[in-house]
Design brief:
alpha+beta, 4-stranded mixed beta sheet, about 45% helix
């Protein structure tokens, strides 16, 4: 149930003049309609190729809320979802970004840390030590305030991860236009905002906050952390998104080290039979809305992070349109960087846009 994201750009003299986003991802939530609630929860974890823990947790919380039940997802399910978030961040930081920047990826180190995280329930101290060692490679203190040049120098004095970040700061595009960051609000606030307490079909395809597209993900969650805020102030939003992932790995390590750490997701009900769950994933906010009658799902809706960040007029569109580089190939490379930083949860490609059918800068 993956689909494909097609990103089309028209480049002229090193400037992106036209952009079109074609999201072919199917809205698969209807496959849960008509199922008993427990069956729907199980199926939700298996429908999608990524973030199965988060999908299952969201489904469990949503159906519990719809039935007026106390949340039944155990703490272990919440922590497994947090581990999943960290594992997704690791893949980008240790495999995808080195490859994108022409560096050697770190598959063996990634596999070792991935295994440690998979065993975090039994040996959290091993996973925590691995995460903290990786974060230390960045070369900077997570809560340090520094300008872009100082941050780049600190990264270069770090380890392999720091070298990736230093090269990214140099290679990534500087934002021309910015999209608002999605505020961190709970399921109760979302339930009050949505008609009948759950997203409709239009919202699932093109979600908005205060009637405008918004960006979700690590950047939205960590924007106020000094090292991230300094990159934002310099217009280095692409690099800030990747640095925010490093910040989140440090946060995950802290949570895994604390046995008393609470839930990482929540749910609410606007009325009897309606439930809404919100789970923060590596790519951003995942929302499940469900209507239940007599223990059977009658309507199921899912809003994934990709629909936020690749909204036809959203963050990818706005930061790509008008992007300038030293030449056409360099502009295309920066578009690739931006797409990877926004990290769609489906297969994607960037190709030249033919014709004049998209908006021009």
């Amino acid at each position: 149930m993956a689909g494909r994201l097609q990103l089309r750009v028209g480049v002229e003299h090193g400037c992106v003049r036209r952009v079109r986003v074609e999201n072919g991802r199917p809205l698969a939530a209807h496959l849960l309609n008509g199922r008993r609630v427990d069956e729907a929860v199980t199926l939700a974890s298996n429908l999608f190729s990524l973030c199965g823990q988060a999908q299952g947790l969201a489904a469990r919380l949503a159906v519990d809320a719809a039935q007026g039940l106390a949340p039944s997802a155990p703490r272990s399910r919440h922590r497994a979802t947090l581990v999943e978030l960290a594992q997704e961040h690791l893949w980008r930081l240790m495999i995808d970004w080195p490859q994108r920047l022409g560096m050697t990826d770190r598959r063996e180190a990634f596999a070792d840390l991935h295994r440690r995280l998979a065993g975090a329930a039994e040996a959290p101290e091993t996973a925590v030590a691995g995460l903290r060692a990786l974060v230390a490679e960045s070369g900077f203190a997570v809560d340090a305030a520094m300008d872009t040049a100082a941050l780049r120098d600190a990264c270069r004095r770090g380890g392999p991860l720091g070298e990736v970040l230093a090269r990214l700061i140099d290679a990534a595009p500087v934002a021309v236009e910015c999209t608002a960051l999605l505020p961190q609000v709970g399921a109760g606030a979302w339930s009050a905002r949505l008609t009948d307490g759950m997203p409709d079909a239009a919202f699932c395809r093109q979600p908005v906050f205060d009637d405008a597209p918004a960006e979700t993900g690590a950047l939205a969650r960590q924007a106020k952390v000094p090292v991230v805020a300094s990159l934002l102030a310099a217009g280095r939003r692409c690099a800030a998104r990747v640095v925010a992932r490093v910040v989140e790995l440090a946060r995950v390590a802290s949570v895994l080290a604390d046995p008393a750490a609470g839930p990482v997701a929540d749910a609410a009900s606007a009325s009897a039979g309606v439930g809404l769950a919100c789970v923060e994933t590596a790519r951003g906010l995942l929302m499940h809305g469900v209507r239940v009658e007599a223990g059977v799902v009658t309507d199921y809706r899912i809003v994934a992070p990709t629909e936020w960040n690749f909204h036809p007029a959203g963050v990818f569109f706005r930061e790509t349109l008008g992007l300038k580089a030293t030449g056409d190939d360099a502009a295309r490379s920066q578009v690739q960087c931006l797409a990877l930083a926004l990290d769609p949860c489906v297969a994607w490609d960037v190709a030249d846009l033919e014709g004049e059918e998209a908006i021009r800068a």
